[in-house]
Amino acid sequence: MVAEPRTHHPYHMYEAIMAQPEASANVARDAEQIASTSVEKLNAARRIFLIGIGTSFHAAQIGHLLFREAGITTQAMHAFDFALYGPTLSPEDVVILVSHRGSKVYGIEALKRAHEAGCTTLLITGQGEPVSARYASYTLKTVEQDKASAHTISYCAAIVTLAVLANTLTKHRTGTIAFSLENLPELLKTCLESEEQVQTLASQYFQARRIWLVGGGPSAVTAQEIALKIKESSYLQAEGMSVEAMLHGPFQCVEPEDLFILIAPKGAAQERVAQFSAQVRAVGIPYLLLDDGSNTKNNQPYQGAAAVVSVPSTYEPLTALTCLLPLQLFTYYLAIQKGTNPDGFRLEDPRFAAGSKQVKL
């Protein structure tokens, strides 16, 4: 639900985006206490499942990669699939639900299913008293509820919380953490310095027929998340996927009136994204490049880009946040250019308001 509706900039979405650096520090500090109380259960788990819906599912996918970086095997599943088609569970399993408000039907059903199977259950959610908490062995509360329906700060907070859980577990097992979060707030502040640039880019490309976002690993998840945010806030056509998925069919429907955004920080997928940039350029479609300084000014992606948006360098799983913030701002300014309300989920349109009442989320 949107509180205190606004009709012009700055919308609630903008304020949430800009609050993320400070929030990341607060969330990391607060999460450490609950993480330490649940670490024995996590350590004893036969399997760890990370589940969510929409943006929260994207957070679960990033959580899977954060745990992987820490040497811990997990499985990310959509809460709908977990509730209706999930694996047979046992008390030796741990299920972690990510949910902005803890109130969605299939998030609740998924956690209830795990609870009834005797699993240890963790809920990562925003402030408040979520219904799903009744099925949670541990509840990790992050930030005040997003006032915009296009969630931003709660996504960042969930990822930070998952990073704390991964670090706590690997430290319990090995005595060391997988990655430091100490300088994350400063990194995120640096990311927000791209605001003027991405505002200009939004004014140049808001009329694109379709916006394609492509990356690999955590950047593939970021591509999906930003595509979702574009759809929610400006109602533009946008698709996000892994670079390899893009190469096997979807590229055949692109047109010169489209825009590509290539998310290419240092990591295992970077070379493949570089190869793909040549294909985009050959077809005559402009692309923007998200770069952490590892793409040299002489290489193909950098040379061919219509613009390069720079982000600070960090551990690859944490690029899910550093590459995220400039694209959240780009998304926001697309909505400003289109004249839509990025907070409202299109519910100011009577058709969509009526439609939203037909299916309970």
UniProtKB/TrEMBL annotation:
Record Pfam families: SIS
InterPro entries: GlmS/FrlB_SIS, RpiR-like_SIS, SIS_dom, SIS_dom_sf
EC number: 2.6.1.16
Annotated ranges, domain SIS: 38-169, 201-345
Record GO biological process: fructose 6-phosphate metabolic process; protein N-linked glycosylation; UDP-N-acetylglucosamine metabolic process
Listed SUPFAM superfamilies: SIS domain
GO molecular function: carbohydrate derivative binding; glutamine-fructose-6-phosphate transaminase (isomerizing) activity
Family annotation (PROSITE patterns): SIS (PS51464)
Catalysed reaction, written as an equation: D-fructose 6-phosphate + L-glutamine = D-glucosamine 6-phosphate + L-glutamate
Name assigned to this protein: Glutamine--fructose-6-phosphate aminotransferase [isomerizing]
